[in-house]
């Protein structure tokens, strides 16, 4: 039997929908009554202060975007950190992004990788891809193509064409033509133009 939905859960769903529509420009600030937006933010703050991880993350987004509040990267980071500590994978990734770029907090790529990894371990695709890229470039971690392959594989297995392409290219680096062919073909079939270019240039059908 499913547990009953609480009023707080219903409110979070409503708030989440509102801020998602604003975030992706499917709704403009002008279309939201000012008083309604302020009320929504106040309710979000209350729920965030009570320790709800999703509300904490959404509150961080409101400070990044300036939805009903004055934009503040440092205030956003504060709430991302609380939410990340409470296990929210989106907040873990966004906290990593803040550390990586030094937005609202002192730039620290090692800490960025710490939070990318937490989010990646919880299955969040953008974090897996960002962590893999860091291992390629040696940003916040030592360069390690094998570790990069590990994380690109995880995001590739979520049917992400750029990651599938990167996996294929890494297998080419490791001289595993069979796996290179498999992943570049997969990326190509998912309409990733870089994969199509490599597929034809290297005549990978012959691998």
Mean pLDDT: 88
Strand content: under 5%
Beta strands, count = 0
Distance between the termini: 53 Å
From N to C, what is the helix and strand string? HHHHHHHHHHH
Biggest β-sheet: count, sense, barrel?
none
**How many H/I helices?**
11
Global shape:
elongated
Radius of gyration equals 20 Å
State the share of residues found in helices, binned by percent.
over 70%
- Classify the secondary structure makeup into a structural class: mainly alpha
Low-pLDDT ranges: 1-10, 25-33
How would you describe this structure to a colleague?
The protein has eleven helices and no strands. It is mainly alpha-helical and 207 residues long. α1 (7-23) crosses α2, α5 (89-101) packs antiparallel against α6 (109-121) and α6 packs across α7. The radius of gyration is 20 Å and the shape is elongated.
Which descriptors would you attach to this protein?
single chain, 207 residues, mainly alpha, 11 helices, disordered N terminus
How is the secondary structure organized here?
Elements: H1 7-23, H2 34-49, H3 53-65, H4 73-85, H5 89-101, H6 109-121, H7 125-137, H8 145-156, H9 161-173, H10 177-189, H11 193-201
Provide a short characterization of the protein structure.
This protein has 207 residues and is mainly alpha-helical. It is built from 11 helices and no strands.
């Amino acid at each position: 039997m499913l547990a009953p939905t609480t009023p707080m859960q219903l409110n979070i769903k409503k708030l989440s929908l509102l801020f998602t529509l604003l975030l992706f420009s499917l709704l403009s600030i002008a279309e939201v009554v000012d008083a309604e937006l302020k009320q929504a933010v106040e309710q979000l703050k209350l729920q965030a202060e009570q320790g709800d991880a999703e509300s904490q993350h959404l509150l961080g987004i409101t400070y990044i975007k300036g939805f009903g509040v004055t934009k503040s990267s440092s205030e956003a980071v504060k709430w991302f950190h609380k939410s990340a500590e409470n296990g929210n994978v989106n907040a873990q990734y966004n906290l990593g992004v803040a550390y990586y770029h030094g937005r609202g907090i002192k730039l620290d790529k090692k800490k960025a990788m710490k939070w990318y990894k937490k989010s990646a371990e919880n299955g969040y695709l953008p974090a897996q891809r960002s962590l893999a890229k860091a291992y390629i470039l040696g940003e916040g971690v030592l360069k390690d193509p094998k570790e990069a392959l590990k994380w690109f594989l995880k995001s590739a297995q979520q049917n992400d064409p750029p990651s599938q392409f990167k996996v294929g290219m890494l297998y080419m680096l490791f001289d595993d033509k069979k796996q290179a062919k498999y992943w570049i073909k997969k990326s190509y079939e998912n309409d990733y133009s870089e994969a199509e270019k490599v597929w034809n240039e290297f005549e990978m059908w012959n691998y």
